# Entry
Amino acid sequence: MDPCEVVVAVDLGGTRMKCGLVAADGAVLHRETRPTPREAGGRAVLAALLATVVELAQKAAAEGHRVRAVGVVVPGIIDADSGEVSAENLAWVRTPVLAELRAAVGPGQQVVLAHDVRAGGYAEFRQGALRGTTNSLFLPLGTGIAAAMVVDGSLVSGDGYAGELGHTRFVHGSAAEQCACGQWGCLETVASAAALARRYAVRTGRVVDGAREVLELLAQGDADAAVVWREALAALVDSMVLYTTLVAPTRIAIGGGLVGAGETLLAPLREGVHARLTFQREPEIVAAVLGEEAGMLGAALMAWDRVAADESGEETR
# Structure
């Protein structure tokens, strides 16, 4: 492999880190996955992240590549001014992630820190299912639910707070469950992959192996699985109709683990949204295409954007 310029890209998840060395043309020259030591606590997670970034940079140098920047994406709430991150599933509370990354890579190396879902949405916008749109939505349905919003051709950050669609209330009354965020009836409590498994277990007294088994039971005609699935779809349709009414996306790309259900998921979402809209512009509803690499690729794209901005003399945060 000929030496070239690369960025280090890391997508830090609650279970795994997806990592890569990515060239300016988007070629992934090296990719690997490492475990996230979440059970060992927040400090251990941060230490593992820092070690990963440093080791990937060292690997790049050993192969003759020049590292131009580091891009890291994480879940949770990122304070855009301080670079502090609060993420429940990583045991981080106002953890100074950006400062620690900068200290680890040393002076003179650009570091970009961003939200994992926004990064995944950015990759889909630049290279995937949202390419060519100016108003669109990336909605990954996994352990949790968040969204990446493209409005008038730009990714919306909200100073690090935007896109938490999973924490809007769509379930009311006695059916509402308390969410990990502290609210009741959040979309995430009924329509995430984790919620499907939990709600099926509560309804039947039978513990299942995640949303995958609920979908298998659904295919077999299980009535309880059908109820849980129908309730999840109803809440998702509500959320997509609300978003469509407010922001008018032309395309919504569904990602995350649940998109593996294919048309079992997508067809009723299209039908439900179509039935509810009156004057609103109806969006296409499609599957995201970049899969588990979306976050890592988005981290790389954002890092290369920072390099380009520096070279052009533009101000960047």
